[in-house]
Amino acid sequence: DQQVKQNSPSLSVQEGRISILNCDYTNSMFDYFLWYKKYPAEGPTFLISISSIKDKNEDGRFTVFLNKSAKHLSLHIVPSQPGDSAVYFCAARIGFQKLVFGTGTRLLVSP
Amino acid sequence: DAGVIQSPRHEVTEMGQEVTLRCKPISGHNSLFWYRQTMMRGLELLIYFNNNVPIDDSGMPEDRFSAKMPNASFSTLKIQPSEPRDSAVYFCASSKDTDYGYTFGSGTRLTVV
Protein backbone atom coordinates (compact mmCIF):
# COMPACT_ATOMS: atom_id res chain seq x y z
CA ASP A 1 0.00 0.00 0.00
CA GLN A 2 1.78 3.09 -1.29
CA GLN A 3 0.92 5.97 1.05
CA VAL A 4 2.94 8.48 -0.98
CA LYS A 5 2.48 8.34 -4.74
CA GLN A 6 4.33 9.99 -7.57
CA ASN A 7 2.30 9.00 -10.59
CA SER A 8 4.63 10.43 -13.21
CA PRO A 9 7.78 8.32 -13.52
CA SER A 10 9.39 10.88 -15.80
CA LEU A 11 9.12 14.48 -16.97
CA SER A 12 10.94 16.32 -19.75
CA VAL A 13 11.22 20.12 -19.77
CA GLN A 14 13.16 22.65 -21.77
CA GLU A 15 15.74 24.84 -20.06
CA GLY A 16 14.22 28.06 -18.76
CA ARG A 17 10.70 26.67 -18.53
CA ILE A 18 8.84 25.62 -15.39
CA SER A 19 9.07 22.07 -14.05
CA ILE A 20 6.14 20.85 -11.96
CA LEU A 21 6.50 17.61 -10.06
CA ASN A 22 3.47 16.17 -8.31
CA CYS A 23 2.91 13.98 -5.30
CA ASP A 24 -0.25 12.58 -3.71
CA TYR A 25 -0.61 11.07 -0.27
CA THR A 26 -3.27 9.12 1.53
CA ASN A 27 -2.48 9.43 5.23
CA SER A 28 -3.84 12.56 6.91
CA MET A 29 -1.49 11.97 9.86
CA PHE A 30 1.53 13.13 7.88
CA ASP A 31 2.74 16.38 9.50
CA TYR A 32 5.72 17.38 7.37
CA PHE A 33 6.62 16.97 3.74
CA LEU A 34 9.99 17.02 2.03
CA TRP A 35 11.47 16.82 -1.45
CA TYR A 36 14.77 15.09 -2.09
CA LYS A 37 16.87 15.15 -5.22
CA LYS A 38 18.97 12.20 -6.32
CA TYR A 39 21.75 12.08 -8.89
CA PRO A 40 23.02 8.73 -10.26
CA ALA A 41 25.36 6.81 -7.96
CA GLU A 42 24.67 9.23 -5.10
CA GLY A 43 22.33 9.22 -2.14
CA PRO A 44 19.25 11.46 -2.07
CA THR A 45 19.89 15.00 -0.84
CA PHE A 46 17.39 17.27 0.87
CA LEU A 47 15.93 20.00 -1.33
CA ILE A 48 12.99 21.76 0.33
CA SER A 49 10.29 21.04 2.90
CA ILE A 50 6.93 22.28 4.14
CA SER A 51 4.99 21.90 7.34
CA SER A 52 1.42 20.64 7.16
CA ILE A 53 0.23 23.94 8.66
CA LYS A 54 1.47 25.90 5.66
CA ASP A 55 0.46 25.89 2.02
CA LYS A 56 3.58 27.27 0.37
CA ASN A 57 7.31 27.41 0.96
CA GLU A 58 9.81 29.04 -1.36
CA ASP A 59 13.58 28.74 -1.63
CA GLY A 60 15.15 30.43 -4.61
CA ARG A 61 14.02 28.70 -7.79
CA PHE A 62 12.18 26.01 -5.82
CA THR A 63 8.66 26.34 -4.42
CA VAL A 64 6.61 23.64 -2.75
CA PHE A 65 2.84 23.87 -2.58
CA LEU A 66 0.63 21.86 -0.24
CA ASN A 67 -3.08 21.30 -0.73
CA LYS A 68 -4.22 19.42 2.36
CA SER A 69 -7.83 19.04 1.30
CA ALA A 70 -6.70 17.31 -1.88
CA LYS A 71 -3.80 15.55 -0.14
CA HIS A 72 -1.57 16.85 -2.89
CA LEU A 73 1.94 18.26 -2.93
CA SER A 74 3.80 19.83 -5.82
CA LEU A 75 7.31 21.11 -6.46
CA HIS A 76 7.82 23.96 -8.91
CA ILE A 77 11.22 24.72 -10.36
CA VAL A 78 11.49 28.05 -12.16
CA PRO A 79 13.48 28.48 -14.31
CA SER A 80 14.58 24.91 -14.92
CA GLN A 81 18.27 24.29 -15.59
CA PRO A 82 20.07 21.28 -17.09
CA GLY A 83 21.72 20.70 -13.69
CA ASP A 84 18.27 20.07 -12.24
CA SER A 85 18.09 16.80 -14.19
CA ALA A 86 17.79 14.15 -11.49
CA VAL A 87 15.28 11.89 -9.77
CA TYR A 88 13.03 13.74 -7.33
CA PHE A 89 11.48 11.97 -4.37
CA CYS A 90 8.56 13.24 -2.38
CA ALA A 91 8.57 12.22 1.30
CA ALA A 92 6.12 12.58 4.18
CA ARG A 93 6.81 12.36 7.89
CA ILE A 94 4.73 10.35 10.33
CA GLY A 95 5.42 9.61 13.94
CA PHE A 96 8.90 10.13 15.30
CA GLN A 97 11.16 10.93 12.36
CA LYS A 98 9.77 8.23 10.08
CA LEU A 99 9.75 9.33 6.45
CA VAL A 100 7.64 7.58 3.83
CA PHE A 101 8.94 8.12 0.30
CA GLY A 102 7.30 7.99 -3.10
CA THR A 103 8.65 6.10 -6.10
CA GLY A 104 10.35 9.14 -7.60
CA THR A 105 10.04 11.20 -10.78
CA ARG A 106 12.94 11.44 -13.22
CA LEU A 107 13.28 15.02 -14.47
CA LEU A 108 15.19 15.74 -17.65
CA VAL A 109 15.91 19.37 -18.48
CA SER A 110 17.18 19.79 -22.02
CA PRO A 111 19.20 22.81 -23.19
CA ASP B 1 32.29 16.17 8.08
CA ALA B 2 32.63 12.97 6.05
CA GLY B 3 28.90 12.41 5.85
CA VAL B 4 27.23 9.02 6.13
CA ILE B 5 29.65 6.34 5.01
CA GLN B 6 28.46 3.07 3.52
CA SER B 7 30.47 0.06 2.47
CA PRO B 8 30.85 -1.65 0.15
CA ARG B 9 29.67 0.54 -2.74
CA HIS B 10 28.95 -2.50 -4.86
CA GLU B 11 28.38 -6.12 -3.89
CA VAL B 12 27.84 -9.05 -6.21
CA THR B 13 27.08 -12.35 -4.57
CA GLU B 14 25.62 -15.72 -5.38
CA MET B 15 22.19 -16.78 -4.26
CA GLY B 16 22.30 -18.38 -0.84
CA GLN B 17 25.33 -16.46 0.38
CA GLU B 18 25.35 -14.15 3.36
CA VAL B 19 25.67 -10.44 2.66
CA THR B 20 26.61 -7.76 5.18
CA LEU B 21 26.19 -4.06 4.47
CA ARG B 22 27.85 -1.50 6.70
CA CYS B 23 27.10 2.05 7.71
CA LYS B 24 28.81 4.75 9.72
CA PRO B 25 26.44 7.61 10.58
CA ILE B 26 27.40 11.25 11.00
CA SER B 27 28.95 11.91 14.39
CA GLY B 28 26.38 13.38 16.74
CA HIS B 29 23.40 11.96 14.88
CA ASN B 30 21.39 9.66 17.10
CA SER B 31 18.95 8.16 14.59
CA LEU B 32 19.91 5.76 11.83
CA PHE B 33 17.75 4.46 8.98
CA TRP B 34 18.10 1.66 6.44
CA TYR B 35 16.22 2.09 3.16
CA ARG B 36 16.02 -0.03 0.02
CA GLN B 37 15.45 1.49 -3.40
CA THR B 38 13.72 -0.43 -6.17
CA MET B 39 12.07 0.74 -9.36
CA MET B 40 8.68 -0.57 -8.35
CA ARG B 41 8.52 0.65 -4.77
CA GLY B 42 10.90 3.59 -4.65
CA LEU B 43 12.58 4.12 -1.29
CA GLU B 44 11.28 1.71 1.34
CA LEU B 45 12.14 2.04 5.02
CA LEU B 46 13.45 -1.27 6.32
CA ILE B 47 14.34 -0.38 9.91
CA TYR B 48 15.39 2.55 12.02
CA PHE B 49 17.26 3.00 15.26
CA ASN B 50 17.20 5.78 17.82
CA ASN B 51 20.05 5.91 20.33
CA ASN B 52 21.16 2.48 19.06
CA VAL B 53 17.78 0.89 19.85
CA PRO B 54 15.61 -0.50 17.03
CA ILE B 55 12.38 1.54 16.98
CA ASP B 56 10.53 0.26 13.92
CA ASP B 57 11.48 -2.84 11.95
CA SER B 58 8.11 -3.33 10.30
CA GLY B 59 9.67 -2.79 6.88
CA MET B 60 12.10 -5.68 7.14
CA PRO B 61 10.89 -8.03 4.38
CA GLU B 62 11.37 -11.32 6.17
CA ASP B 63 13.49 -13.20 8.66
CA ARG B 64 16.36 -13.38 6.21
CA PHE B 65 17.02 -9.72 6.97
CA SER B 66 18.54 -8.54 10.24
CA ALA B 67 20.08 -5.26 11.40
CA LYS B 68 22.21 -4.29 14.34
CA MET B 69 23.58 -1.11 15.82
CA PRO B 70 26.15 -2.11 18.45
CA ASN B 71 27.25 1.49 19.05
CA ALA B 72 26.51 5.04 17.96
CA SER B 73 29.01 4.95 15.10
CA PHE B 74 28.26 1.67 13.35
CA SER B 75 25.37 -0.35 11.96
CA THR B 76 25.06 -3.45 9.81
CA LEU B 77 22.30 -4.88 7.64
CA LYS B 78 22.64 -8.59 7.02
CA ILE B 79 20.85 -10.79 4.52
CA GLN B 80 21.14 -14.53 5.02
CA PRO B 81 20.53 -16.34 2.74
CA SER B 82 20.44 -13.83 -0.10
CA GLU B 83 18.06 -14.22 -3.06
CA PRO B 84 18.00 -12.59 -6.51
CA ARG B 85 14.94 -10.53 -5.54
CA ASP B 86 17.06 -8.82 -2.87
CA SER B 87 18.98 -7.06 -5.65
CA ALA B 88 18.54 -3.32 -5.08
CA VAL B 89 20.36 -0.25 -3.83
CA TYR B 90 20.46 -0.09 -0.05
CA PHE B 91 20.81 3.31 1.60
CA CYS B 92 21.73 4.22 5.12
CA ALA B 93 20.74 7.63 6.50
CA SER B 94 21.19 9.42 9.81
CA SER B 95 19.70 12.41 11.60
CA LYS B 96 19.47 14.24 14.89
CA ASP B 97 16.27 14.31 16.93
CA THR B 98 15.80 17.97 16.02
CA ASP B 99 16.06 17.34 12.27
CA TYR B 100 13.07 16.94 9.99
CA GLY B 101 15.05 15.21 7.27
CA TYR B 102 17.90 12.80 6.92
CA THR B 103 21.39 12.77 5.47
CA PHE B 104 21.84 9.79 3.19
CA GLY B 105 24.93 7.81 2.36
CA SER B 106 25.87 7.00 -1.23
CA GLY B 107 24.31 3.56 -1.05
CA THR B 108 25.36 -0.03 -1.66
CA ARG B 109 24.29 -1.59 -4.94
CA LEU B 110 23.61 -5.26 -4.24
CA THR B 111 23.34 -7.80 -7.03
CA VAL B 112 22.44 -11.37 -6.17
CA VAL B 113 22.96 -13.81 -9.06
Biggest contact: A-B, 25 and 28 residues
Termini gap of chain B: 36 Å
Helix tally of chain B?
Answer: 0
Total beta strands of chain A: 11
- Oligomerization category of the chains in this entry: heterodimer
Number of helices of chain A: 0
The residue fraction in helices of chain A comes out at: under 10%
Q: What is the terminal separation of chain A in angstroms?
A: 38 Å
What coarse outline of chain A follows from CA principal-axis ratios? globular
Description:
Chain A is mainly β and 111 residues long. Chain A contains no helices and 11 strands. In chain A, strands 2, 4, 5, 9, 10 and 11 form a 6-stranded mixed β-sheet that branches. In chain A, strands 1-3-8-7-6 form a 5-stranded antiparallel β-sheet, with no helix packed on it. Chain B is mainly beta and 113 residues long. Chain B is 0% helix and 55% strand. Chain B has no helices and 11 strands. In chain B, strands 2, 4, 5, 6, 9, 10 and 11 form a 7-stranded mixed β-sheet that branches. In chain B, strands 1-3-8-7 form a 4-stranded antiparallel β-sheet, with no helix packed on it. In chain B, strand 7 and strand 8 form a beta hairpin. Chain B is globular, with a radius of gyration of 13 Å. The termini of chain B are far apart. The model of chain B has no long low-confidence stretch (mean pLDDT 94). At the A-B interface, strand 4, strand 5, strand 9 and strand 10 of A face strand 4, strand 5, strand 9 and strand 10 of B.
Structure summarized in a few sentences:
The complex is a heterodimer of chains A (111) and B (113). Chain A is mainly β and 111 residues long. Chain A has strands at 4-5, 10-14, 19-25, 32-38, 45-51, 56-59, 62-67, 72-77, 86-94, 98-101, 105-110.
Topology:
The complex is a heterodimer of chains A (111) and B (113).
Chain A: E1 4-5, E2 10-14, E3 19-25, E4 32-38, E5 45-51, E6 56-59, E7 62-67, E8 72-77, E9 86-94, E10 98-101, E11 105-110
Parallel strand pairs in A: 2-11
Antiparallel strand pairs in A: 1-3, 3-8, 4-5, 4-9, 6-7, 7-8, 9-10, 9-11
Chain B: E1 5-7, E2 10-13, E3 19-24, E4 31-38, E5 42-50, E6 53-56, E7 65-71, E8 74-79, E9 88-95, E10 103-104, E11 108-112
